[in-house]
Amino acid sequence: MTTEPIQAAPLLEARNLTKVYEDGVKALDNLNLKVLPGEIFAMLGGNGAGKTTTINTFLDFIQPTSGSALINSIDANQEPLEAKKYVSFVSENVQLYPNFTAMQNVDFFVRLGGQSNYERADYEHALIRVGLQREAFDKKLKDFSKGMRQKCGIAIAILKDAPAILLDEPTSGLDPKAGKEFTRLVGELRDEGKAILMSTHDIFRAKEIADYVGILNNGVLVAQKTYEELRGVNLEELYVEYMAGYMDETLESAVLTNDLD
Amino acid sequence: MLSLLIQKELKNILLSPKFVATFAVCSILILMSVYIGIQEYNNAVIQYEANQEIARQDIAEASNWRSIRNILHREPTPLQIFVSGLHFDVGRLSNISTSDDIKLIRSPYSDETLFAIFRFIDFTFIVQIVLSLFAILFTYDAINGERENGTLKLAFVNPISRASYLIAKFTGIWMGLIIPLLIPILIGMLMLILFDIPVLASDWGSIASLIGLSVLYITFFIGIGILVSSLARKSSLSFLLLLVIWIGGVLIIPRLGITAAGQLVPIESVAQIEAKQDAFQRARWNQYSEDLSETWRTRSAEMEGMDEAQAQAYREEKEWEWLEEDDATRKQVQVDIIENNRVLYEEVQNQKKIQEKLAFNIARISPVSSFRLAAMNLAGTDIDMKSRYEENMRFYKDDFTDFVERKQAENPDEQGGMRIEIDESGVSIDFGRDDQTLDTSELPRFEAPVVQAGTAFGNSLLDFGLLVLFIIVTFGGSFTAFLRYDMR
Amino acid sequence: MFKLIFAKELKEIIQSSRFTISFAVCSVLIILSFYMGAQNYLASLAQYEAAVQENNNQIAANTDWQFVNHSIMLPPQPLMALVNGVSNDIGRNIEMRSQGELRAENTRFNDEPIFAIFRFMDLEFIFGIILSLFAIIFAYDAINGEKISGTLKLCFANPLSRASFISGKLAGSFLGLSIALLIPMLIGCALLPLLGIQLTGEEWIRLGLILIAGLAYFGLFLALAIGISAITSKPSNSFLLCLVIWIFAVLIIPRGSVLISGRIADVPNVDQITAEKNRYRAQLFAEDRPKMADFSVDPQTEPMDVFPLFSEFMNELGTARQEKIDVFNARLNEEFTNKRRRQEQLALSISRVSPTSVFTLATTELAGTSLRLQNQYMDDAYEYQNTYASFMEEETGSANSGGFRMIVIDTDGNQEEPDPLDPNDLPQFQFNQGSVATIAGNTLLDFGLLFIFNLVFFGGAFAAFLKYDLR
Predict the structure, then answer these.
(1) Confidence class of residue B475 from pLDDT cuts 50, 70 and 90?
(2) Which of B21, B114, B386 is the closest to C244 by Cβ?
(3) Interatomic CA distance for residues C374 and C85, integer angstroms
(4) Chains sharing 3 or more CB pairs under 8 A with chain A
(5) For residue B417, what pLDDT band results from cuts at 50, 70 and 90?
(6) CB spacing of C156 vs A113 below 8 angstroms
(7) Which domain holds residue C31?
């Protein structure tokens, strides 16, 4: 892959992104955000706030009602196949193919991502980097724990070596140790110059590594703080502010959950 | 506590798409099968009557008692609407005459081969194949599915016993399957009344037993479903296992059992039996002619040394005695041949019985066979239907032959066939009877074999027992498996 | 991309326990059905040969062709044992007569009803019922299962088009499973010569076509299940829907449509036809009776010469009567046959809504056990009747027995012992299976329909996936 993104141009960008579902529910309302190379943008918000919808739009799983989602300045909904060359994705609960071994899964997805020059040693290297035990490499995924599956997922993203990475609730359900390890890996990827957009419930972890934190409520980006700004903000205050918005929408989100997750 | 659990199970099942699909499919199928069954029954009745008409014509045409023939037809029974059994495969009629052997010929399928391509669909078929499949669909995740969902843990946080949980589970599923079975079949029974099908009281009894049998059969499948679901950790695995069990039990074992028995106990074919009979007959007649020559040689020897006149006198004196002797020998030959034929026939029948017994016993490894066999016994369309009819027809044939012989003796003038007499005056042809009809009102009447409801039930008792046994085993298994179930 | 998905699909199938279990079951069943079919054929062949031998013995026991009771039998064919069709439901023996109507008696299921209870396990059953069910088991969660496990999202996070994904999936699962099924089929085929059954080249071609039809049928159920898994969200629902469709396609539509439409067409039953024929025959005989009574000869004739004269007279009357009966019966039969053909046409056409019927009709036709078997057998029997009649005429001087047999008792008793008959003098009955080209031609419609079903279901699955909500 020969991708030399122009410096300072955002790798991931949402422009006036709006999504209204058939039943009239507004999942995204004029959302704007940018993620530059070497940046982590964390989206915070309750269930149904629009985090997953945003990521789904970048992946062309959802067509926006208006506005556009750009990956490396390519409209993800106009030219999805082109745009997806520049993005990796790790989902909330990476399942992979249960009857495949870790190696076979990695091999398949990496090839799917357009990387066909790797050899087994490269896969092993990546899997060790994400912290998977060597003896698990040739075991079938159905015997894996959630943390081990998540590690395979991130290994796939690393091997695809796309400049942008989308993470959908990547640490939910992981134990603290695995969560911490995962956070470390994400930090490393950022330092390698990847542009990372992640959605999360976990404000503490977001505060720890994110360069920007955006708070979504009812599909609207209600606040956007930088890492520096966050350092000054009282965590509890932020939490309450965030929860207040969350409380208001609880009723609505209960209806939405089915559509959005 | 138990009633709460049962309520939950019932709600859970009655509101599920599974139940809706089962109910809809079963209703359509059962009502359609009863409707088609009624049409087929009416058709069989029409054919039965058409055949009575042919028999009457034949009798009316007969010119003398010797040439009189009758045709006996199997009587259709309303129970074949629910259990067609062997009705379509076994011949429906036999010719009755003094010379022909009894043999049921012309099965409904051989007359209307079109219907043999896909065969008939009856109530037992639906229960046997469709409902059992749905039973599996209802039960495969009964236990391990709840574990996977986490609802099992949630339920057992509360003070409930495992036994009551399992009972509730079973009751809910049982109701969910019995309702789609009972409602349409009750409507089906109403249809019998609406279409004026002559159903006897004992037939209603058989239908009721048939429904009871179906309930047992479904209960067994629920039992095995819950058993597998509590043995296999994952619902995907129990699903696959149950499907394999279903295919094996419903489709494979019954067929395999019968075919295996067919190979283990080979039965001589009709042609082989006929060959044996033929060989004996020929050998016996050859022996007879040799014996006869021998006898005559002895007789000639006795006349040795006599002169012509003496021999003549001796011959005349002995003639009557010799004739009687020869006649007795000839009759003995016939008796021997008939006896040999009977022995061979019985041998084949016994072989067949052994084969059947073995076949059914192998097939009974699967409760599906028990269900099918018991249902056919209840409806009287079982494997013995053919021999029952043939036996009754044989009795009838004896009566018929006696009657005809009596009539012939009463009317010695009525000779069979045409008689051409040639004498000095020329040729005269005697047609025997001319234009006057025979009085056939005294012709013996055929009584179709009736299987008493009690006997039918008795015949199916073994299979009922086996089904109950299977149910006890699967339920016992489910209980022990669930009492030791790892809830994590 | 297509190649990658294709390879992944193959690997995934082969590595799953679902495949291991069901492939094992399928293989055992396919091989078993070949084995049992072969055994069944050998048993029927032995029965057939014994019956032919018995018939010859009967003939050899006679000294005059006039008294011969000759029966012809339907020779068993290896393919008949593999795909039973209606072969167990039609009469196998025909008592041959020089004229008049022939009737086939002794169906297998009537002679051995024990086999009718559960029927045999033949290839048509294995493919039609078991393999279609396995196709559903393989594929009912092909799409929605991947969605639930999240792999679908993960795949489409890459530059992958939906078209290549679904076509890779369809092709991968179809080819993977077909090749897997082909193995037991080939073992089964190899079993036939090992068990001593030699198929002719034409029979191999027909068997090959049967297997192709089987794979096409399997493929369409696979595509159907994949398509359904792309329009339902939960695997449990897609299985339920597949199962209901399976029950209807496999069990209900073929039977229901034939039973209902068969009865819509107004066809009198066989017995009504027979009654009508009997009435006519009786009427003609009654008309002839006065003529018979008028028979007279020149009083000067020698008594021994009266017999041939009378015989000739009766033959003339009989022939005239038989001609009328033949005309009448032929008309009745033709009407009846036409009505019945129409009934069959209607019933079978309607049943073809279900791919299972199409498959059954195609395979039974290829195996020679479709409805055509009965017609062909009767046609051949009637053709043979002509040969037989001319043979009898040559041997006995009269083809007409007309229900009239004269027995001359000679009391002088010093005749020479006549020679027994040689059954080999009798022309042999030939059953004509039809050439492979004709048979293949007859199945063209059904193969076409199978192809269309495949096209529709593959296309449907493809289209359904293009609109699939990937989230």
Answers:
(1) very high
(2) B21
(3) 11
(4) C
(5) low
(6) no
(7) 1-260+358-404+422-471
Q: Please count the residue pairs, one from chain A and one from chain C, whose beta carbons lie less than 8 angstroms apart.
A: 79
* Confidence band of B423 (pLDDT split at 50, 70, 90): low
Number of domains in chain C: 1
**Residue-level pLDDT at B187:** 94
Cβ neighbours for B268, distance < 8 A, ≥ 6 positions apart: B276, B348, B351
Give the domains, in start order, of chain A with CATH numbers.
12-96+163-260 (3.40.50.300)
- Strand A66-71 relative to strand A12-20: parallel, antiparallel, unpaired? antiparallel
Token pair, residue C198, equals: 């030699």
Torsions phi, psi of C94, nearest 5?
-125, 125
CA dist B31 and B189 (Å) reads: 10
What secondary structure letter does DSSP report for A193? T
Q: How close is the nearest chain B Cα to the Cα of C202, in Å?
A: 24
pLDDT at B421: 62
Q: Which chains form contacts with chain B, at 3 or more CB pairs under 8 Å? A: C
Residue of B114, B278, B292 to mutate, testing the C interface (most C Cβ within 10 Å of its Cβ): B114
Amino acid at the residue B116: A
Instruction: Write out the two tokens for C103.
Output: 């009737």
* Range name among A171-185, A234-248, B129-143, C74-88 with the lowest pLDDT average: A234-248
Question: How does pLDDT run across B305-329, given as a tens digit for each residue?
Answer: 778 888 888 888 888 888 888 888 8
Q: Which of B48, B378, B53, B76 is nearest to B198 (CA)?
A: B76
| Alpha-carbon torsion (B480, B483, B484, B487), positive or negative | positive
Distance CA B203, CA C43 (A): 40
CB-based contacts of A21, cutoff 8 Å, min separation 6:
A27, A259
pLDDT in the model for residue C56: 85
| Amino acid at site B113 | T
Q: Shortest Cα distance from A196 to chain C (angstroms)?
A: 14
Contact C272, B50 (CB under 8 A): yes
pLDDT digits (tens, 9 = 90+) for C46-83: 888 888 888 888 788 777 777 777 888 899 999 988 99
Of chain C residues 336-395, which have a CB less than 8 A from chain B? 340, 343-344, 347-348, 351, 357, 360-361, 364, 370-371, 374
Taking the C-alpha atoms of residue C91 and residue C104, their distance in angstroms, rounded to an integer, is: 4
pLDDT tens digits, C172-223: 999 888 888 899 999 999 999 999 888 888 999 999 999 999 999 999 999 9
Residue C398 in 3-state DSSP? coil
Q: pLDDT tens for residues A108-124?
A: 888 888 888 888 899 99
Percent of chain A with pLDDT over 90: 14
Pairing mode of beta strands B93-96, B70-73: antiparallel
What is the CB-side half-sphere exposure of residue C369 using CA atoms within 13 A?
Answer: 30
User: Region A49-68: what's the mean pLDDT?
Assistant: 89
Residue that is written with structure tokens 């159905």 in the block: A142
The residue assigned the tokens 């219907």 is: B115
C82 in a structural domain: yes
Inside any domain, residue C341: no
Helix (H) or strand (E) run with residue B163 in it: helix B162-194
Mean pLDDT of the region B120-143: 90
For C113, which of B25, B90, B269 is closest by C-beta distance? B90
User: From CA C34, how far away is CA C29, in angstroms rounded?
Assistant: 9
User: Nearest Cα to C365, choosing from C309, C440, C310?
Assistant: C440
Which residues have CB under 8 Å from B323's CB, separation 6+?
none
**Which are the contacts of C402, defined by CB distance < 8 A and separation ≥ 6?**
C99, C314, C315, C318, C319, C321, C322
Whether C271 maps to a domain, the answer reads no
Those chains having 3 or more beta-carbon pairs within 8 angstroms of chain C are A, B
In tens, the pLDDT along B101-130 reads 788 888 888 888 888 888 888 899 999 988
DSSP B251: I
